Amino acid sequence: MPKTDYDDFAAAYSADNEVNLLNGHYERPAMLDLAGDVAGRRILEAGCGSAPLAAALRDRGAIVSGFDRSTAMLDLARRRLGEDADLTVADLAEPLPYAVATFDDIVAPLVLHYLKDWTGPLTEFHRVLKPGGRLILSLNHPFVYTALNPDGNYFDVAEFSFDAEHAGHTVTYTIWHRPLQAMTDAFTAAGFRIAAISEPQIAADTPVELRPQGVEHPARFISFIFFTLEAI
Ligand SMILES: C[S@@+](CC[C@H](N)C(=O)[O-])C[C@H]1O[C@@H](n2cnc3c(N)ncnc32)[C@H](O)[C@@H]1O
């Protein structure tokens, strides 16, 4: 299956991500909640895209760095954070260009599921985190794979595709599903302790017109799963 290349739709994705339900009123507020008080903390965002999360963390007093494999997304990030921001083109599938024990926290929103092999990326995250540092990540919820692929086997590690619309632009995403236990096994094998698994609600201030309609619990729906891990 062709890889999802954000260079192809960077501007549409970034504009939509600011205001849509899934990113603007669900994923990003949940990450900020999980991160808590970040004042003075040195934070790396993996797959930072156009850096709306990094900007929000910086506004809360964090010292932020970011990397992404898409140069178009990083151009947008530079426009947002300024030319002197610490932003690097790098691929999570390769060794990361940071020294041992550099960061207090790493945030990795919706990026790890683009990779089949998590061993290298998680080992690299552990290497560049200070001892006791946090890795906070969000992923497509494993339940979503079986909802979209009724014939698929939940217990397989399987690549699958789905379409989404961003500012009038249809994008085909291709990501890897893995069952919950494969996720938690990978985290612990890389030297992380699982501090929390979260299935958050949408933000309380989500505009009515963006709230999921016709469902029993409009503030609570399954799309992403969040982990807060601690490097031991
Ligand atoms: C869902 S977007 C999230 C963007 C941003 N973190 C946010 O919250 O708005 C995923 C980002 O991960 C990047 N990405 C995907 N695979 C990557 C990889 N192997 N290495 C680095 N970045 C990657 C994409 O280019 C994209 O910018």
Please characterize this protein's 3D structure.
The protein has 232 residues and is α/β, with parallel strands linked by helices. Helices cover 30% and strands 29% of the residues. It is globular and about 45 Å long. The mean pLDDT is 95. A seven-stranded mixed β-sheet has the order 3-2-1-4-5-9-8, with helices on both faces. A two-stranded antiparallel ribbon has the order 6-7. The chain binds S-adenosylmethionine. The site of S-adenosylmethionine (SAM) has 20 residues, from helix 3.
Give a quick set of tags describing it.
232 residues; 29% strand; binds S-adenosylmethionine; Rossmann fold; alpha/beta; two-stranded antiparallel sheet; seven-stranded mixed β-sheet
Summarize the structure.
With 232 residues, this protein is an alpha/beta fold. Helices cover 30% and strands 29% of the residues. The chain has a seven-stranded mixed β-sheet with strand order 3-2-1-4-5-9-8, sandwiched between helices.
Mean pLDDT: 95
Q: Name the helix and strand elements from N-terminus to C-terminus, one letter apiece.
A: HHEHEHEEHEHEEHEE
User: What number of domains?
Assistant: 1
Beginning-to-end CA distance, first to last residue = 36 Å
CATH architecture descriptor: 3-Layer(aba) Sandwich
Structural class of the secondary structure composition?
alpha/beta
Strand line-up in the sheet with most strands: 3-2-1-4-5-9-8
Content of β-strand: 25-35%
What topology does this entry show?
Elements: H1 10-19, H2 23-35, E1 42-46, H3 52-59, E2 63-68, H4 71-81, E3 86-89, E4 103-109, H5 119-128, E5 129-140, H6 142-148, E6 158-166, E7 169-177, H7 180-189, E8 192-198, E9 224-231
The structure holds S-adenosylmethionine.
S-adenosylmethionine binds at residues 6, 17, 23, 47-49, 52-53, 68-70, 73, 91-93, 109-111, 114-115.
